[in-house]
Design goal:
Layout (H helix, E strand, L loop, with lengths): L2 H15 L1 H21 L3 H29 L5 H19 L3 H23 L2 H10 L5 E6 L2 E6 L8 E4 L9 E5 L2 E3 L11 E3 L4 E2 L10 E5 L7 H14 L3 H26 L1 H4 L4 H15 L2 H5 L2 H13 L2 E3 L2 H7 L4 E5 H5 E12 L5 H12 L5 H12 L7 E7 L3 E6 L2 E6 L1 H4 L6 H9 L3 E7 L2 E12 L3 H10 L4 E5 L4 H11 L3 E3 L4 H15 L2 E5 L5 H6 L2 E5 L5 H6 L2 E3 L6 H36 L4 H19 L6
Parallel strand pairs: 10-17, 10-19, 17-18, 19-20, 20-21
Antiparallel strand pairs: 1-2, 3-8, 4-7, 4-8, 5-6, 9-21, 11-16, 12-13, 13-14, 14-15, 15-16
Helix pairs in contact: 1-2, 2-3, 2-5, 3-4, 3-5, 4-5, 4-10, 6-7, 8-10, 10-24, 10-25, 12-13, 12-24, 12-25, 13-24, 15-16, 24-25
Length: 637
């Protein structure tokens, strides 16, 4: 393939992937070339180039404006901008002031750039759904008379029997009829520990089977599975237009109606009421359309938001759209997921309590030697703790895992048992301490040598170091209400909340329960943020006014669904994001007041000061430049 064909292929691909951006770029290039042609006195070239800029940059806005006009019988800013631009061009040709054609092209270019930015913001919905879909298996291993057969998920029927081997993704919601295993449900419920399940228990599509083979019975259609409900919840929450967007659209249309109506009155009444000639009347009407067009008003918002986004990126805060930067400054309530957000999401050894006559090191060393042969999450945390202390581990032999109970084997020719109290036949020597640890939300593992108790090891998900300080900082910033949502058990959730100073906790929640909790908060506080990291958080992230995901520990779908991502998993950046959002609100309000003031002054000058078209354009474009520079203040920390 030749270099020319490769270049054409790249250009074609770029146009397909980023059509709005390419359109804005082409419009900008043509505007620059047309302006240069006028500067050099090449009028014919300019008259050929600038109309192309109008067509390329204004086609989308014209189509949307006319569609709104004819189908909805409404006027919007898209159509107003095109009318103003064409009016400037027509006036330039009529009076042979050709620089006005460039001014009209610049108006169109501004709108083309705005459309491109909006297009990028809307692409995240499709990516979110694709990420969710990747969690589901394509086929299931159905057990039939005479053997097994791979069947597409959508072909499964209620009553089918499915075999799921160790380490496989469970293909659909079902009931266990044979087998025992620890199921990793973090993707659905957010539980930090694998959940042990046996005959009669329900398992969910998208969760991961542990070490045991399971035979399942399908008890509901695949489209009714929990993961499919998660997908639908994300779709519904992201396609629903927020009230703020509806308000902006309504304001734009009302403003356009007002300007067009006044423009028509100005173009017809002055000859009869004020004695103006028709040339003066049309001239003033066209100046009115130019100076009244809301370019400065539009520039009052977007440059400020883009500057805030750039500032946030430097601090490890990724805002996916300017609207969310503004929205987070209005947040009155915040809901936190627990596992992986307020905590690290990884179980760690918290405490070792040796029995009389033994040391913590001896207990950990023997336990780690045996647990090194297990793939359980708790086993990994015990081995990791031994490695951190650089303990020398003996080789364990004859290791056997007792599903749901523990693990047993020989270390230095001595039988070592690790697991539940009943499994190791532990005495009541440490029972009171064990109960206290469990009341604090910790998982207790008993360690015995033969019939002799060595001690207990407490394992738990640990708090992020910055979590408590972040909660206090948010309260000082004036966030009115902070709650914790989790799929984990009530006891563990309450213990974590007490450590953080969070007073309201909702535990043992499924994804749809988290959505309901967010909706309840929104009825009371309107603007609500949700902070999470798991697939189970995706519907709540989508439902919240602002969804915030952890960048490193967050799942793909949480990252795609969220509006804001804390890239370095630094929870303290949340307070910085809120402060930045409030600064953005302040700057935008200042810009809007200035932009509206300029429009009023220019309109007054048009009626009473005999302002010329060049001065009107200078005033219009000058106010746009000033509010743009004002927005750049948000680049400073």
């Amino acid at each position: 393939m030749t270099s020319n064909s490769l270049s054409l292929s790249r250009i074609s691909q770029l146009a397909e992937e980023h059509p709005d951006a390419v359109t804005a770029a082409l419009c900008g290039i043509l505007v620059i070339l047309g302006s240069l042609a006028l500067q050099f006195g090449w009028l014919g070239v300019a008259v050929l180039i600038l109309p192309a800029a109008y067509v390329i940059g204004g086609y989308s806005s014209t189509r949307e404006g006319l569609t709104t006009l004819f189908q909805e019988r409404e006027l919007d800013v898209d159509l107003l901008m095109i009318v103003a631009a064409l009016g400037a061009a027509g006036l330039g040709l009529w009076r042979q002031e050709y620089h006005l054609i460039v001014d009209g092209a610049v108006l169109i270019l501004i709108f083309a750039i705005s459309g491109a930015l909006e297009g990028y913001a809307m692409q995240r919905t499709e990516r979110s759904i694709r990420s969710l879909m990747s969690l589901t298996a394509d086929t299931a291993r159905v057990v039939m008379y005479g053997g097994e057969r791979e069947v597409a998920i959508d072909k499964l029927e209620i009553g089918d029997y499915i075999l799921v081997k160790p380490g496989e993704i469970i293909p659909t919601d079902a009931i266990i009829i044979e087998g025992y295993s620890a199921i990793d449900q973090a993707s659905i419920t957010g539980e930090s520990m694998p959940v042990e399940k046996t005959r009669g228990d329900e398992v969910y599509a998208g969760t991961i089977n542990g070490v045991g083979a399971l035979k399942l019975e399908v008890h509901k259609t695949p489209e009714s599975s929990l993961i499919q409900r998660v997908i639908r919840l994300v779709q519904e929450a992201q396609t629903a237009a927020p009230p703020s967007q509806m308000f902006v659209e309504k304001f734009e249309r009302g403003y356009a109606k007002l300007i067009v109506g006044l423009g028509l009155l100005l173009a017809t009444l002055p000859p009869f009421l004020l004695g103006w000639n028709w040339e003066e009347t049309i001239y003033r009407a066209l100046i009115f359309l130019v100076v009244a067009s809301p370019c400065a008003l539009m520039a009052a918002i977007m440059p400020a938001l883009l500057s805030g986004i750039a500032n946030g990126a430097r601090q490890g805060i990724l805002f996916k759209s300017g609207a969310q930067l503004e929205m987070i400054g209005k947040v009155r309530a915040i809901a936190f997921d627990k596992t992986g957000t307020l905590t690290t999401g990884k179980p760690e050894v918290i405490q070792i309590v040796p029995a009389a006559g033994y040391t913590e090191t001896e207990v950990l060393q023997l336990a780690a030697a045996l647990e090194a042969h297990s793939e359980h999450a708790i086993a990994s945390s015990i081995v990791s703790a031994a490695q951190q202390q650089q303990l020398q581990l003996s080789t364990a032999t004859d290791v056997q895992a007792k599903i749901g109970q523990g693990i047993i084997g020989k270390v230095n020719n001595q039988i070592i048992a690790i697991g539940k109290a009943g499994f190791v036949e532990a005495t009541s020597e440490l029972a009171q301490i064990s109960q206290q640890l469990q009341a604090e939300g910790k998982t207790v593992v008993w360690v015995a040598k033969g019939a002799q108790l060595l001690g207990i090891i407490a394992v738990a998900d640990t708090l992020r170091p910055e979590a408590a300080a972040t909660v206090k900082r948010l309260q000082k910033l004036g966030v009115e209400h902070i709650i914790m949502l989790t799929g984990d058990n009530e006891q563990t959730a309450q213990h974590i909340a007490r450590q953080l100073g969070i007073k309201e906790v909702y535990a043992e929640l499924l994804p749809e329960d988290k959505v309901q909790a967010i909706k309840q908060l929104q009825t009371q506080y309107q603007t609500v943020a949700m902070v999470g990291d798991g697939i189970n958080d995706a519907p709540a992230l989508a439902q919240a006014s602002v969804g915030i995901a952890m960048g490193i520990s967050g799942s793909d779908v949480a990252l795609e669904t969220a509006d804001i991502v804390l890239m370095a998993d630094k929870l303290e950046q949340l307070a910085k994001a809120i402060s930045l959002g409030r600064r953005a609100q302040k700057v935008i309000k200042q810009n809007i007041v200035f932009a509206l003031s300029c429009i009023v002054l220019l309109l007054a000058a048009n009626f009473f000061g005999n302002i010329t078209m060049p001065l009107g354009v200078i005033g219009h474009e000058g106010s746009t430049v000033i509010v743009t520079l004002s927005g750049l203040r948000l680049l400073r920390n």
